[in-house]
Each structure stands twice: as structure tokens, then as C-alpha cells.
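Recap from last week: sequence in, structure out.
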Amino acid sequence: MYSVRMRMHNADEDCGIAQAAVVMADWWNVLVLREIARGHVRFDALASELGLSRKVLTERLGALVARGVLRRSLYQRRPVRYEYLLTDSGLALLPLLVAMQDWGDRWVLGDGTTTATAPPDGAEHARVHALAGAGTDTGTGTSTGTRLPADLQLSASDGSERPVVAPDAAATVLFTYPGTGVDWGEDPIPGAPGCTLENRLFRDAYTDFRRADVAVHGVSTQLPYEQAAFARAEAVPYPLLSDAQQHLAAALRLPTFRGAGRLRLKRLVLVLAPDRTVRHVLFPVEDIPAAVEETLRLATAGL
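Predicted C-alpha cells:
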């Protein structure tokens, strides 16, 4: 069994940072959790995504199960096979993973600037556009885009828990935005304004989306009660979903920025198929009216 040996001062016994470092242990543990958050919960899928040997991956998974971060769930008896799922303790680590990504995007892959947009030659741009994959597999006719985890649900502004992808729609439009009614202070953050306008434009086009059997979901890291107040004030007809716990951000490695005291999603639009795979990506979104028009075109094409 893989074990972590650390020289710790006596004071570290009461230090949450030190104890969390023991659990995370090394960068492979962090990447294992990253992949499980993305929906790669079976051993072979994890080994393929990470390029780890079976021995090392077995050690890491065993350590994370022993720490209570993961649990094993039997999905096949002959031979015995398990899925590795996040416990409540593991789910509580997702905001930490997203914060690490945000720091890496800004300070390692970027120039330290706080922005709600992204340059076309940057890491965030490449990562987001890779969600759509290479299109369609000609052999099976299925999308090759990134697939959202089947059990991913978010809190809606009406108090319910909803799947991110509508199960009964021909397609789902998922647009993320930093937040409505937010005061960015004296120095506006590039790419952040316009969240109310964006919701209004999707509201005005909602009949056209529904006529084509396309669902529309708006997502921010605001709390459900904040979203509910905005939905009532603006008569928003589609669900607003809260990613305050960053479950969606972790599943898709979505770009974020910190503004007005909160980690916020950068503005982007995804069109997803009923099988939860990403078909189309719009990012960055700078011309909001043009983006809503393009989203309607992409979402309804071929339906």
C-alpha cells in the first residue's frame, strides 16, 4: 500500500494546510482526483488518461480510498471491477482543484492579469475548444466531444436539483456567465460586463430555441437565492443553475477568474447533445448579441 511519509513539526498536527497536504500527498493524487471529477471513474479510463502504470495507479487509488476521499462501487462481478467515486470529503476538494487551476491559468500559463476573457493563443482557449473534440465518429455516428458525468446535477433557482443536460431535449445550450448585479469596483474586469444583457437576449430568443426542442440553461457561481431574485425580476423562462461548489467547473475544467470576492466562471457557450457530449463551443464571448444568434444557429442545425 502506498504510504506518505512526511517530517512534520508538532504544530502541524493542528494545521489544516499540513493535514490536507498529507492527503493530497503528491501531484498524481491531485491528477487522479481531477480525472474522477471529469467522469473517468473506472481503472482503465484513469490509466489511459493519466498514462500511469497499473501498480502506481492502484497505490494512489488505495491511498485515496483509505483517506476517505474516494469510495469504491462494484459495477462488475466476473471479473470484479470497481468504479472510484468521490465521497462528500472528495467533493469538498473540488473548489480547491478549481482554485489551483485558476492560479495556474493566471500566474503560470498567463501574465497575472485578472480577466474574464481569454486570448486565442492561450491555454484556456485551447482547453475549452478541445471540449468539442474532433466532431463526429463516422463509424458510430456519435459525438467525440467531452462527455459530462452522468450524475452531475446543480441547484436550480427554483430550489430543485437538475441535470446540467436536459434529458428530454434534442440539444441543450449551456451558457456560463460571471454574475448578474455584480459591482466590480472602480476597475472593471475585462470581459465581465453584460451578464444581464446576455440573459435578456437568451430570454428573448427562448421561444425559437424551444420551437426546435433545444433547452437553455444559464450557469454562474452565484447562490440559488441570488439567481432566483434575478430570474423573477427579469422573467427568465429557463433554469439558472448554481455552480457555487464548482462541480461543473471541475468536470469540464472551465476557465474562471476571481472578482468581487468570489471565484467566477468566464463567459462561454456550450451546445451539448442528449448523450451529454459537447458538440459546439463559443469562447471567448465578447460580442454577446452575435453569440446568441450563433448559438441558435448551431443548436438548431440538423435538428
